[in-house]
């Protein structure tokens, strides 16, 4: 099994995907660009890569979620194997872009959160 991690805002509002509001011009723009559909689907295997995303959230609360997949299945979703996701990637060999149904299986991972928080000197919950 391969464990993939994601850093995300731990709050309601900006930073969380939430519900699509067709009357909101920002949501419309995100939908038209494809960014709305991509939210919440980017993962990394290496926790040290999440430090950049965690710093981006600070001083606001963040959380680390994880999902475990069989290695062969996970490999299909590596960004370097997905031409449509390549242009949005910082590091295509070390990022995964999961289908929504798999990404939604991710759950909070307190141990991973503690490791990333400690590396940043951020307080633990």
Keywords:
single chain, 125 residues, alpha+beta, three-stranded antiparallel sheet, two-stranded antiparallel ribbon, globular
Short summary:
The chain is an alpha+beta fold and about 120 residues long.
Helix count from the secondary structure assignment: 7
Helix- and strand-based class?
alpha+beta
Radius of gyration: 15 Å
**How big a fraction of the residues is strand?**
15-25%
C-alpha end-to-end distance: 28 Å
Large-scale geometry: globular
What count of domains describes the coordinates? 1
Read across the widest sheet, the strand sequence of neighbours is: 1-3-5
Low-confidence parts: 13-17
Tell me roughly what share of residues is in helical segments: 25-40%
Mean pLDDT: 79
User: Largest sheet, if any?
Assistant: 3 strands, antiparallel
* Strands, total number: 5
Q: Could you give the order of the helices and strands?
A: EHHEHEHHEHEH
What does this structure look like?
This protein is α+β, with helices and mostly antiparallel strands. It has one domain. 37% of the residues lie in helices and 19% in strands. The protein contains seven helices and five strands. A three-stranded antiparallel beta sheet has the order 1-3-5. A two-stranded antiparallel sheet has the order 2-4. Helix 3 packs across helix 7. The longest helix is centred in the C-terminal third of the chain and has 11 residues. About 4% of the residues have low confidence.
């Amino acid at each position: 099994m391969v464990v993939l991690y994601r850093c995300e805002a731990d709050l309601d509002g900006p930073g969380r995907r939430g519900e699509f509001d067709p009357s909101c011009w920002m949501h419309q723009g995100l939908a038209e660009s494809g960014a709305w559909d991509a939210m919440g689907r980017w993962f990394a295997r290496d926790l040290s890569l999440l430090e950049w995303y965690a710093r981006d959230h600070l001083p606001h609360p963040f959380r680390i979620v994880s999902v475990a997949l069989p290695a062969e299945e996970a490999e299909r979703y590596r960004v370097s194997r997905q031409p449509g996701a390549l242009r949005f990637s910082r590091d295509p060999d070390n990022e995964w872009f999961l289908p929504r149904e798999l990404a939604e299986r991710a759950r909070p991972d307190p141990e991973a959160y503690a490791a990333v928080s400690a590396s940043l000197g951020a307080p633990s919950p």
